[in-house]
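Action item from last week, closing it out:
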Amino acid sequence: MRFTAISLFMFMGMLYAVNSHAQLSVYDLNRPLGWGAQPGFEVTGGTGGEEVVVTTEAEFEAAITKKGSSGLRDVPMIIYVQGEIEFKSMHTWHVKNKTILGLPGAKIFSRDRTKKNSGIMKFSSGSGADSENIIIRNLTIQGAGAYDTDGDDALLFQGVKRVWVDHCTIGDGVDSSFDCNHESDYICVSWCHFLYQIAPLAGGSGGADDHRFCNTWGASDKATESVGHLNTTFANCWWDEGCMERCPRVRFGKVHIVNCYYTNTANHYSIGYGYKSNIYAEKCWFADGVIVDKDYTDAKHGYPDYNYQLVGSKQGGSTLADKKQDVGGDTYFNPADYYSYEAFDVALVPTVVGNEQTGAGANLMVEVGKGVTGYANPVTTGIARVASGFAAGTPSKLMHNARLVILKNGVQYNVQGQLLK
């Protein structure tokens, strides 16, 4: 069957047992897309498994590492996150078949910018203990703020197959906000909102005074084990204020960036095409003042190859010239050769993706025992939109009970116009 209604993606094929509810809107199909929906590699997370609500760091750790009868941490689990949870250091897991759902306003954050304890969530594989089949939805994940001290990311996948990250608000990572490397594969990142609002800390050992680097796909040019992997669909994502670079920066993978929204003005660049990357960016909308892309290959040291296409995109009111460029002669990646889809009109991207109620970010209604049941109305985004940024190391205020903080002349109101003390 082929859908004909106007929508973000109209994929042919099976419906995935991620959630029993229908699509959320004509644009949001409420399921994994593209590389996250490949036959035989579908992302199902903890569907059908035990359900648990967690409110503390210890409860989260116990739930996600629970062992099955085989002694492996592969028991299907649906973990509902409630309220604010502070992680005191990076948690590293080797787990399978997990769904993490944020209840409205849920947030996991860190205050620590040190090399030793920065970072929040890491899913990893190795030594026979692999991570696979992970879903994270409707969760705000906020680091302590960018600081180039070779610390950790807010969210990291290393060697993980079958991943869906959807409707999350992710930002202020110390090293990066959300990275993926080391043979990770079959990944869908959809309807996520990336931003940095804590001022970057200068003087780190890495040398960059402003390390607000958002998404690094591929660890290094020498990490050639990732050749043929890191295949990812970024759909309807929003790179917002403070995202200076790597939105994303790609090595090795076939990466589809579609109907994404870029308002990260005064940036260094947005899409970085690195060694062996094969990127197809289409119908994306860039605000005036946003630098669209940059060549991040290293021909001088023997890493020149890349394929990059930018098609059907706009910057402000102007149509961007299509690009099709490569070094090395690899076949250009065309998503239509791997999955069926339709992208919506690029002119709609600002109003569809940038809609705080139904667009990108942690704005879903999630109910225990039911999962995602619609949109939270009014929306909770988890990270308050404060133009001046936050003081270093200070987490943002959570918007409890579906209340969006609105700033007017420095005073905070909720969406009903009531003063917040």
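Closing note: The first strand starts at residue 50 and ends at 54.
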